[in-house]
Amino acid sequence: MNANDSTAYGAVPEEAVGLDLNDHTAMDDYQTIGEPLVDNAKMSARDVNVFYADKHAIMDVSLDIGENQVLAMIGPSGCGKSTFLRSLNRMNDIIPICRVSGNIALDGEDIYASNQDTVLLRARVGMVFQKPNPFPKSIYENVAYGPRIHGLAHSKAEMDEIVEQSLRRASLWDEVKDVLDKPGTGLSGGQQQRLCIARAIAVSPEVILMDEPCSALDPIATARIEELIDELKERFTIAIVTHSMQQAARVSQRTAYFHLGKLIEVGDTKQIFTMPRHELTENYITGRFG
Ligand SMILES: Nc1ncnc2c1ncn2[C@@H]1O[C@H](COP(=O)(O)OP(=O)(O)OP(=O)(O)O)[C@@H](O)[C@H]1O
């Protein structure tokens, strides 16, 4: 199969619909149902495999993330969503037993090229984690840290401007503008997560990866982050892993369903949630398992 030929993914293989994914030999030739490739790809993954020592965690995944879109990744626990997400900014590099093969490109450039600077890559492809993890520093310093490392501000005034803009874009400025010198860890969970988003935004990323960013938050804080994600997509490209199907339906334009390391189905979020084409997707979104 030519991974660059989107028509290769178009047809629904009849035999795939009843595929027994517990039978790994039956998965070898499995082709994703739906449209994994898009015209306006910001990031593109082709035939990606990820291993933790002998454990094959991601199998032959090809998937694009469209520019200024939110892609949601869903699937049962252990299906590989976080592994795939982390491979998009080489966070897996820090796990010694982890090996990634295939091709992942940002604006067409291979992020696994030997001359790729991973610090720079992670500034371009930022990450927000499940549990808010502000540095044990002031609110101001949490946001200023990245821009300082990357030399993005040439004066105190420029840094102040970056900090304010980032906090505004993370919809936190009004709540913290008078307490910028207070510790970031003293904020509420939802505020801390918005601070972490501000920290990611401060280095002007192009893509933001979010790994269950609301799982530690209450419904009100979650709603604020979801609103924020919707605003952020005007400037950034976003991939989000979530266990909440309601959240995927609310914030994303495309949804990818993973199962046992395979990308089973991907498409327009409305279609995935109203007319899934694979019975595994349907079983998952209707709550039959997962
Ligand atoms: N650091 C690691 N070392 C070894 N195996 C790992 C490691 N991280 C993940 N795995 C394995 O890889 C597989 C995929 O895990 P991953 O965390 O990516 O799944 P997930 O879909 O994000 O799960 P969850 O929804 O529970 O977070 C699982 O079998 C997991 O046990």
Tell me the layout of helices and strands.
Layout: H1 14-17, H2 24-27, E1 33-34, E2 41-52, E3 55-66, E4 70-74, H3 81-87, E5 98-106, E6 109-110, H4 118-124, E7 125-128, H5 139-149, H6 156-169, H7 173-176, H8 189-201, E8 207-211, H9 219-232, E9 237-241, H10 245-251, E10 254-259, E11 262-268, H11 269-274, H12 279-285
Parallel strand pairs: 1-11, 4-9, 4-10, 7-8, 8-9
Antiparallel strand pairs: 2-3, 2-5, 5-6, 10-11
Helix pairs in contact: 5-6, 5-8, 6-8, 8-9
Keywords: ATP-binding, Nucleotide-binding, Phosphate transport, Transport
InterPro entries: AAA+_ATPase, ABC_transporter-like_ATP-bd, ABC_transporter-like_CS, P-loop_NTPase, PstB-like
Organism: Pseudohalioglobus sediminis
Task: Write a brief caption for the model.
By secondary structure, this protein is an alpha/beta fold. It has helices at residues 14-17, 24-27, 81-87, 118-124, 139-149, 156-169, 173-176, 189-201, 219-232, 245-251, 269-274, 279-285; strands at 33-34, 41-52, 55-66, 70-74, 98-106, 109-110, 125-128, 207-211, 237-241, 254-259, 262-268. Helix 5 (139-149) crosses helix 6, helix 5 packs parallel to helix 8 and helix 8 runs parallel beside helix 9 (219-232).
CATH topology of the domain at 6-11 and 30-129 and 206-285: Rossmann fold
CATH H-level superfamily of the domain at 6-11 and 30-129 and 206-285: P-loop containing nucleotide triphosphate hydrolases
Small-molecule binders here are:
adenosine-5'-triphosphate
CATH architecture of the domain at 6-11 and 30-129 and 206-285: 3-Layer(aba) Sandwich
Question: Strand order, biggest sheet?
Answer: 1-11-10-4-9-8-7
Major sheet, described briefly?
7 strands, mixed
**What would the principal axes of the Cα set say about the shape?**
globular
Give me the oligomer status: single chain
